[in-house]
Amino acid sequence: MKPLLLKGVRPYGEDPRDLLVRDGLIAEGTAADDAEVIEADGLIALPGFVDLHTHLREPGREDTETIATGSRAAALGGYTAVFAMANTDPVADNAVIVEHVARRGREIGLVDVHPVGAVTVGLAGEQLAELGTMANVGVRMFSDDGHCVADPLLMRRALEYSTALDVVIAQHAEEPRLTQGAQAHEGEHAARLGLAGWPAAAEEAIIARDCLLARQTGARLHVCHVSTAGGAELLRWAKAQGIAVSAEVTPHHLLLDDERLATYDPVNKVNPPLRTTADAKVLREALAEGVLDCVATDHAPHAPQDKDCEWSAARPGMLGLQTALSVVVRTMVEPGLLDWRGVARVMSERPAEIAGLADQGRPLDPGEPATLTLVDPTATWTVRGAELASIAANTPYEGMTLPGRVVTTVLRGRVTAHDGKVPQ
Question: Which residues are marked as active site?
Answer without folding.
Answer: 298
